Structure of MarR family transcriptional regulator:
Amino acid sequence: MNKEEILEQLSITHQGGGFSPLAGKILGVFYLSNDKYLTFNDLVEITGATKGAVSKALKSLKDKHRVDSILDPNSSRKRLFYLDSDGISTYMDLVVQNMTRETELIDECVSRRNDNAPDIKELMSKTVTFNKEIIQFLKLVTHKYFPKD
């Protein structure tokens, strides 16, 4: 695959994580870049998107703790954007938190069901068990691979 194909595939796959296609593409730009920091103009140029669209995607990525920025030491007005390694841990904590709440709610629904559709109740119970195992796994590996400083 060439770089454009990789960026296109990343823009598609990141949609499953709740990111816009452009946000996924921006993450891909960082993954493919040999530079830690990229300017706003770099991202506009590389993605081919409008300034407004890039700005909106960067805000979303910052809100989800995947990208952060610092002031450019060579300019008091410009920012340098980078992948937020601490933010990945924070993002994964939010994923676990949301999955935990969802699992609690499904479990509550299971307890309220009657036995008119036992196959659905069983499916929901298995979902709760599965989610609990995934949550424990995510907690373990998130802090193993992305420890907070």
The mean pLDDT is 93. The longest strand covers residues 67-71. The chain has two domains: 3-83, 86-145. The helical segments are 3-13, 21-32, 40-47, 51-63, 85-112, 118-145.
